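Before the break, one more example. Copy the sequence into your notebook; we will annotate it together after we see the structure.
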Amino acid sequence: MNMLRKIAVPVGACIVFLIAWEFLVWVNGWPNYKMASPSDLWPAFWKFRELFAIYAWQTLWRTVVGLLVAVVFGIGLGMVMGFSRTAREALYPLLVGFNAVPKATVVPVIALLFVGQHDFNTILIAFMISFFPIAVSVSIGLSTLEPEYRDILRSLGASNMTIFWKIALPKTLPEFFGALKVSVTLAFIGTNLMEIVEPHGRGLGHLFDSGKINADYPLMFAVLIALAVLGIALFYVVVLLEKIFAGWAERNPG
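Here is what the structure looks like once it is written out:
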């Protein structure tokens, strides 16, 4: 029953959203060149189904690779900041400043620096935009670790790496997966920024740009829905991993 509820509630919410969207377009009498409705999307999906399949895969694998790089780098950087107060004080302003820079302004710079390296550029932007929450969550988790644990383990000859794997990592897993859920959506944003700005003819971002150039609003909205579906799917992969590795931290208020 609980599993059925977890499936039925999100699906029901999506259906209500689509009905409300269709009703809003119908009430205002908007033509599809001004605001596409959900009923306009399926013909666009079907017409360009082969392109959707190809470009969705290109967007997905580059997003996943960028996210995996962000996880590795974010955990490593978070460990450095979590175990060293000096590193934390030195790196936090730099990270906050870097994260405050709109990535849409960074994309053209990356595209010019690495001309022709389309996959690398896209993965790089996905990584750059998604590692910050992971690094911060790991850093906070380690910096708030009870000093008694560290003292006891160090007196037994444990290294910082041993402390991380035995004590700190399990403690920070709930925060880590919470940050990873945010990073999933950020990684998709980074991927599509590069696909739209850099004209290399790949990914759903390129398909969206093609729809914009041709004033094909149903295609543009169909791309947005496809991106949402990919993001939701990857989000629930993270949720599944969270249940496997940090299910003990889940609360069920009812």
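The chain is about 85% helix and 0% strand. The mean pLDDT is 84. Try to locate both features in your own notes.
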